[in-house]
Amino acid sequence: MRAVLIAVRTLAREWRSGELGVLLLALTIAVAALSAVGFVVSRVSAAVELQASEVLAADLRLVSANPLPEAYIAEARRRGLATGSSVGMLSIVFHGETSQLSALHAVGPAYPLRGTVVIATESFGTPQDAAVGVPPRGEVWPESRLLAAIGAEVGDEVSIGAASFRVGRALVTRPDQGSSFAELAPSLLLNVEDLPATQLIQPGSRVRHAQLFAGDRDDVDAFKAWIGENKQPGERVLDITESSPQVRDATDRAGRFLSLASLVAVLLCSIAVAMAARRYVQRHLDSVALMKTLGATRAFTLTVSLVQIGLLALIAAAIGAAAGFVAQAWLVRALRGLLAVASLPPPSLVPIVMAVVTAFAVLAGFALPPLLQLSRVPAIRVLRRDVGPPPLVIWLAFWPAVIAIVGLIYWVVRDVPLLLGFTGGLAVFVAVLALFGVLLVRLTGSLRSRVGVAWRYGIANLARRRAESVVQVVAFGLGIMVLLLLALVRRDLLEDWRASLPADVPNFFFVNIPSADREAFLSFIDGAGAEASRALPMIRGRLTTINDRPLEDMSFNNEGGEGLANREQNLTWASELGDDNQIVAGRWWGPQDTGQPLVSIATEFRDSVGLKLGDRLTFDIAGETFEVTVASIRQVKWDSFQPNFFLVFPPGLLDATAGTWMTSAYFAPGKPRPIAQLVRRFPSVSVFDMDNILGQVRGVIDKAAVAVQSVFVFTLLAGLTVLLAAVQASRDERRFESAMLRTLGASRRTVRAGVLAEFITLGLLAGLLAALGASVGGYLIAKHVLEVKYTFDAWVWAWGLGAGTALVAGGGWLATRSVVDQSPLLTLRGG
Amino acid sequence: MSARPMTTRDIVLKAENITKQVTSPEGPLTIVRDVSLEIVAGESVAIVGPSGAGKSTLLALLAGLDTPTSGRVWLAGQDLTALDEDGRARLRAERVGFVFQAFHLVPALTALENVSLPLELAGRADARRLATATLDRVGLSARTGHYPRQLSGGEQQRVALARAFVTRPAVLFADEPTGNLDATNGTRVCDLLFELNRDLHTTIVLVTHDHALAGRCTRALHMDDGRIV
Q1: Confidence of residue A794 (pLDDT cuts 50, 70, 90)
Q2: Within A337-465, where are the H helices?
Q3: Are strands B27-40 and A686-689 parallel, antiparallel or unpaired?
Q4: Peptide bond between residue A112 and the one before it cis (omega within 30 degrees of 0)
Q5: What's the whole-number average pLDDT of chain B?
Q6: Which residue of A has its CA nearest to B150?
Q7: Neighbours of A824 (CB within 10 A)
Q8: Would you call A13 and B108 a contact, using CB atoms and an 8 Å cutoff?
Q9: What residues have CB less than 8 Å from B133, skipping those under 6 apart?
């Protein structure tokens, strides 16, 4: 208790002397970085959980590409369950000549069985209470953003396929909006009775039929078991536990990624904490020795330091968590639009626990070892200043830090392989950066003899405190590098990729072209002055066995394989091999192979499902069974924007099966695009505007990049704390040096110029490292991810060097100014 | 010299054949060689001698700040060499006071807090009252709220004296107590030191180069090359 009192009393005094500022700042930034991301992740996860219960609009949902048998509904009703239905598809909605691709949901009168539909009386209007019933016949409820896109308002007429409707209300939310296959497209509700009038559904159309069931939990479970035994292939049962796993997985992954990004800041702050703790120890050697002389035990002095540092941790956790809360609001704003829900639930309190744990873990790992050492300083130091504490045992100097950092990483990722990967990767990355840092600092040191006195003094300082210089160069370089790289990807690489595509690459995709309309459709495109690429048939089929083994008995290593193997596939047949396809194994078929039971697979399908040439696959296509042999494997250049398929059959084999056709076409910019007439004439055809979709993809990448960049701003701030800690550690030395120089006749101006030269050099080195790293990163992403030619970016270097110099020179200058300006007399007298 | 004959009961500090050896780059170095001495309660003893004679090391050994390589030391009846570091610290808290050349005040604490510190370490409830009274005694009642850096050298050393005497220690060890002070302040601190020694019957052991100070002690021990000569 006495120790606590003394600790509190001296802490207040030390705080006023500015000694503990850097320690507190470093801890606060570490906590803020981790808790900001923690708050965002908790809010998004809560939203995903909340959605999951309503995402089905039912307790159980049966979905299929084909209409579902009445027998299911009869059985459900017999068991006392409520039932409802929904039919979903993509189609164009018109208002005059303006159109927008939208996700149509034709719903029956009982919809939704769970959750509520929220509507408004005007576009972007105040949400009303839950809608009563579904749109009456002849009326539709489009989302406000759909209305905005087509310039319509509530009360206007819109046309869908062959029918016209009045906009009755604006749709705000509906429960199952996360489960649709086209989450990017705005949705529209219409009455299922109106669906035939639109003529949208043709044989082979891409439609998603859903039957909804709800009731008592036991009844639902029993019915689920029954339907599990009776359902047909291609019909999938979704219940709450397995709804939208992709969304949850994606959220989990994104959350982990952002948390790991924030951990980089935590790591840098930890370095600053270690430096500040060392300084704390140096400054307290005398007072601890004195306390011991006056009768304090080792435990007592240790308690005093621990209480002080612990109090600092609590203060840092409180301020950091508050700062994190403010930062998360900014992050959520940056992410708005990426998330399906309009507003997020409030964050949980878990990140606050995380804040406290982070602060204490960083202290335990990086500050505790030097503090333990401090408590071992012998009392004799009061008489002999040269006596310090015994040297730190190696394991104590090293392991607590490693355990704290690895522990924090594990806490964030909760996954051993990812932990090992990240830790190993980070260690290698930092080692490479450090190596470059050492090289740069050495190289600079060798320039000393060629510069003026101020620069020589500055560079000499860098070289003398080499370890600290390298740490600062790496800390700053890392922060700036990541920000530059993200900007590079956003600004240039995506543009480069778009520009790398040929000018006349198709910009419109058309699917669901009925066989009977194929010729008419193609001549319509031709007549519109556009150039259609190849048209390929599109047939739905399901893979059932591989080499006579039923798929149900097989397990796949990756989700992709599972999905490819278990869902209905889009199949096609073709006689010609497009120039965007290249055979990598086997051979393409000739005229003699017409009608032969063969299949050509894409490399992605081969890898996901694990196939090789000669494997026998059985497909169920519209109830008919086909057994085929893998005859060739193709490498497909998907960004040719031509119709391409994983599975291609030879002509003459599937010709008789019902299917639709797809094609793509290039409409030159500036010319009128007769899409409205096209859709009116071929109402079942779905149109995808690639420019629009690329724009949306770009929007998503932009938002994600802004979010990641925001997190890495913490890394930059952490770099600043490392700089401050390093300056503080060298304060006494600097004060003495500057006093000596000035006593020897150097003007204040020369001393200042020397210090400025030191930090400008440090900043240039950090900027150089950052620009180099960002350019190498950009090159790797260009070459391996986007597969475009990397073009040199001068602005990366300009920004890297400029930002590095401005930040480091500015920060260092501000931090050392008071030291340099102090009167030499005062310093040399020990004041 | 004390007028009273020494009795075992009165011996407050006793060293028996103490030697201190340290390892230096040139090999083992003996700083204190086979020193034996006895000091009785109320005595004031000056340890004098040239620089490097081992005076400060002997002081540290007698005060239990350091341990001898061989030999034993008794302070207030306790065998220091049998105690561990914390045991010696507790004994210092109860029976020993210190004054140093460089004052060694805790910069983060006020004058009053510095004087209270040893009382607080010993768990005394009336620390503040006693500290205030002792500061008054050294003539610094107007400076209780000042931090060390706001005090002159002489004032700092008077705070240090107050801190040393506030626990009414059996023995006060002083290492060059006037070494950092000018003549006027040095004399003033000396006067206070012996005044307190007389009033509180505290034994004083001090190391000094100051002949005037050594002359005011009841006994002087001359050291050279680690021995008392």
Answers
A1: confident
A2: 350-366, 368-374, 394-413, 416-445, 453-464
A3: unpaired
A4: yes
A5: 88
A6: A831
A7: 19
A8: yes
A9: none
pLDDT greater than 50 at residue A179: no
Model confidence over A621-675: pLDDT tens digits? Answer: 877 889 999 999 999 887 777 888 889 999 988 887 767 888 888 887 776 667 7
Residue A130's CB is within 10 A of a number of other CB atoms, namely 11
Angle at A649 (CA atoms; ends A646, A652), nearest 5 degrees:
155
Burial class (CB in 10 A: 0-12, 13-18, 19+), A281: buried
Degrees, nearest 5: CA angle B28-B29-B33: 125
HSE-CB of B60 using CA atoms within 13 angstroms: 23
Instruction: Report the alpha-carbon distance of residue A787 to residue A618 in Å, rounded.
Output: 35
pLDDT single digits (tens) A727-775: 888 888 888 888 877 777 778 888 888 888 888 988 998 899 899 988 8
Q: Which of A760, A767, A775 is nearest to A812 (CA)?
A: A760
CA-to-CA distance for A788 and B41, rounded, in angstroms?
Answer: 92
Query: Does residue B3 have a pLDDT over 50?
Result: no
Flag if B108 and A290 touch (Cβ within 8 Å). no
- Number of Cα atoms under 13 Å in the Cβ half of residue A440: 25
Q: Which residues of A touch B113 (CB under 8 A)?
A: 9
Residue A735 in tokens: 């004060």
Tell whether the model's pLDDT for residue B8 goes beyond 60. no
Q: What is the CA radius of gyration of chain A?
A: 34
A340, pLDDT greater than 60:
no
The pLDDT tens digits of the residues spanning A107-145 come to 998 888 877 787 888 776 666 656 667 899 999 999 877
Of the candidates A527, A496, A525, the residue with the CA atom closest to the CA atom of residue A790: A496
Q: ipTM score of the complex?
A: 0.86
Bridge partners, residue A140, by sequence: A167, A190
User: Inter-chain contact A383–B175, Cβ cutoff 8 Å?
Assistant: yes
Query: What's the mean pLDDT in A93-114?
Result: 86
Nearest to A295 among B56, B108, B118 (CB): B118
Q: Residue A692: what pLDDT?
A: 66
| Contact state of B65 with A380 under an 8 Å Cβ cutoff | yes
Asked if residues A239 and A61 have their Cβ atoms less than 8 Å apart, the reply is yes
Confidence at A485, pLDDT banded by 50, 70, 90? confident
CB A159, CB A96: distance < 8 Å? no
Q: In chain B, what residues touch A286 (CB-CB under 8 Å)? A: 104
Chain B partners within 8 Å of A14 (Cβ): 108
Q: How would you label A178-216 residue by residue, b for 16+ Cβ within 10 Å and e otherwise?
A: bbbebeebbbbbbbbebbebbebbbebbbbbbbbbbbbe
Mean pLDDT of the region B207-219? 90
CB–CB contacts below 8 A, A to B: 84
Supply the pTM of this predicted model. 0.71
Say how far apart CA A108 and CA A96 lie, in whole Å. Answer: 28
